[in-house]
Amino acid sequence: MPTVDVKNMNGQKVGDIELSDAVFGVAMNEHVVYQVVRAQLANRRQGTQSSLTRSEVSGGGKKPWRQKGTGRARQGSTRSPQWKHGGVVFAPKPRDHSVSVPRKVKRLALKCALSDKVTLGEIIVLDELKLDAPKTREMVKVLSALEANRKVLLVLGDRDEAVLRASSNIQGVKTAYFNTLNAVDVLDCDRFIIVKDAIAKVEEVYAS
Prior knowledge:
Elements: E1 3-7, E2 13-18, H1 21-24, H2 30-43, H3 103-120, E3 123-126, H4 136-145, E4 152-156, H5 161-167, E5 173-177, H6 183-188, E6 191-195, H7 196-206
Parallel strand pairs: 1-3, 3-6, 4-5, 4-6
Antiparallel strand pairs: 1-2
């Protein structure tokens, strides 16, 4: 079982904790991670882009000049793609970009991402996270003490309005709950901070 330090809000070590091999000790499977990341990013696309083809733009009903005898290239419509205000060739149309991935594959990718954070030493376990007031400066002090000054994913065991409000205005900080984790957010952060009471819940939910 991997063992990591447990720190307080001042960045001081107050103990250590053993993490479950079933969640935090999984061998990296790059292909599975690639599949899930690709699917999640694709599912975020709205797919609403749309342009008009030559059959959809207005005008162009009359042939601009006769077929022969003018010395110019033959033209059938002023709404052909080569004309100003003409239609678009192979115009993009609204479509569904979503990709389906089995639930077990999603879980495996998440466990690979969590294990990778442990291997790289980018996981920080907090004994508790309690703020006296929902102030941004209070949260900044905690992150500075933990040397987490770049992209941070903060995982909570239960909803805490003070923490959510204090961290919402800090650039690069994202909050999540133990049951809303996903591989993309875990891989995208430089520091994975998790409150101690959330670890047992993560292991319970994702161990199977």
